[in-house]
Amino acid sequence: KNLLGLDLDQQIEIKGELAYQEVQINPEEARQKALLNRPEIHQLGYQRRMAGEMIKLARASDLPTVAIGGQINYWSNYLNFRKNNWENYYTISLALNIPIFNGFASQAQAAQAKALARQLDYTMKGLTEAIKLEVDQAILNYQQAREALLSQQKNVDQAAEAVRLAELNFSEGLATTLDVTTAQVALSQARTNYAQALYECLMALANLEKATGESISGYMADR
Questions:
Q1: Is residue 18 a part of any domain in this protein?
Q2: Would you state the torsion angle of the CA atoms of residues 137, 143, 146, 152, taken in this order, to the nearest 10 degrees?
Q3: Which of 162, 201, 212, 217 is 20 to 30 A from 116 (CA-CA)?
Q4: How many domains, the chain?
């Protein structure tokens, strides 16, 4: 309740149930989705583009610039604004700006921008590899959790069958109450272990969603 910002005395009703649905994961597809969706990639890509623009601006500061302007004016000395009463004139201006020596300031700015761009390229490469490794680890964790879940499901099935046989034998006088109770306790423990394995499997899927930046519904087996 604290994490949700709810009053500790507030009554809540939990709906739904923990459920697992099989998913099929293509590792390469998952890596590509992660590189497309992860916000860190987008942010770093934006910074790299800005560094490229800084390089262009630094280089352009050493280049001459030409500005051309024009103006046309009409006026009349008469209150009668007929067509033939108007006079006009045109002006055209041309300005050439040639940068003078600035103590290699522009070259220094360009070099600094290039260094930043190279650093961002290295960072992007490292981030890309780190995200791929994170996705691979998330897939491996899910696969291990899935195997554990399937194993616990088998244990539940076997324990349930043991209870059925114990109760049947008890009804026929071939088993004691202790036999039935022991089988029921084993079934309860198997179900508890299954619930824990289910939780870990769902957490593994949640971590995979975080790693790929995409809802796991995109990997559902029945898609």
A1: no
A2: -100
A3: 212
A4: 1
Average pLDDT over residues 28-38: 94
pLDDT in tens, 129-177: 999 999 999 999 999 999 999 999 999 999 999 999 999 999 999 999 9
Average pLDDT, the chain: 82
Q: Cα separation of 55 and 128, whole Å? A: 24
The pLDDT of residue 27 is 93
DSSP code of 215? -
Taking the chain, what is the end-to-end CA distance rounded to the nearest angstrom? Answer: 35
Q: Determine the structural domain holding residue 54 and report its residue range.
A: 27-63+111-219
Q: Give the angle subtended at the CA of 185 by the CAs of 188 and 158, to the nearest 5°.
A: 65
Q: How far apart are CA 73 and CA 77, in angstroms?
A: 14
The answer as to whether 118 is a domain residue is yes
Task: Name the pTM for this structure.
Answer: 0.68
CA distance 187 to 159: 5
Cα distance between residue 6 and residue 13, in whole Å: 13
Range of 54-63, 85-94, 190-199 with top mean pLDDT? 190-199
Structure-token pair, residue 118: 């190279």
Chain-centroid distance of CA 73 in Å reads: 58
Of 58, 157, 61, nearest in space to 114 by CA: 58
Kindly tell me if the per-residue pLDDT of 92 is higher than 80.
Answer: no
One-letter amino acid for residue 214 of the chain: E
Structure tokens at 201: 């499997």
